[in-house]
Automatic annotation (TrEMBL):
GO molecular function, a single term: DNA-binding transcription factor activity
InterPro entries: HTH_MarR-typ, MarR/SlyA-like, WH-like_DNA-bd_sf, WH_DNA-bd_sf
Protein name per UniProt: Winged helix-turn-helix transcriptional regulator
Origin species: Dactylosporangium aurantiacum
SMART domains: HTH_MARR
Gene3D superfamilies noted in UniProt: Winged helix-like DNA-binding domain superfamily/Winged helix DNA-binding domain
SUPFAM superfamilies per the UniProt record, alphabetical: Winged helix' DNA-binding domain
HTH marR-type domain ranges (all copies): 1-141
GO BP: response to stress
PROSITE patterns the UniProt entry points to: HTH_MARR_2 (PS50995)
């Protein structure tokens, strides 16, 4: 049982993620960002209109509602994001990346992408990377079915 390849697969996945993530966190800290702050900013910046409902942001990041609120409070304090009321639901609100938040992404991303290339994607052939992306999406969709919530609806609303 201890030699089960499922244990090996999970162990290698965790070790690889932890190792790459540690390198990325050092680089993010040099720009005054934590991993979660960066994750939220990237998701906002890549979303149609640079915005996501707070509930969708929570689902995509895996944070609790209060966790997302704390991150957005911090990003607002730093001028990187702002909130706006949802026009169709008084109880809902959107988080919107600000121009300063987009500028911060442009400042951080070149070095961030270089590290991703060096320690992750650059170590895989194009075919292996495509297979990995497909596999990761399959797993993500199974374990976090709400992770893409809001993205499809926003994309179709903008077309």
């Amino acid at each position: 049982m201890l030699e089960d390849p499922r244990i090996t697969a999970m162990g290698l996945f965790v070790e690889a993620f932890t190792g790459v993530n540690a390198r990325l966190n050092v680089q993010l800290a040099e720009h005054g960002l934590g991993n979660v702050d960066f994750e939220v900013l990237v998701r906002l910046a890549r979303s149609p209109g640079g915005e996501l409902r707070m509930t969708d942001l929570a689902a995509q990041t895996g944070l609790s509602t209060s966790g997302v609120t704390r991150v957005v409070d911090r990003l607002e304090r730093d001028g990187l994001a702002t909130r706006r009321a949802c026009p169709t639901d008084r109880r809902g609100s959107f988080t919107v990346v600000t121009p300063a938040g987009v500028a911060k992404m442009h400042q951080v991303l070149p070095d961030h992408l270089a590290l991703i290339e060096e320690w992750f994607t650059g170590r895989l052939s194009p075919e292996a990377l495509e297979a990995l992306l497909t596999s990761l999406r399959t797993i993500r969709d199974a374990v976090r079915p709400g992770a893409t919530s809001g993205a499809a609806a926003q994309a179709s609303a903008t077309h």
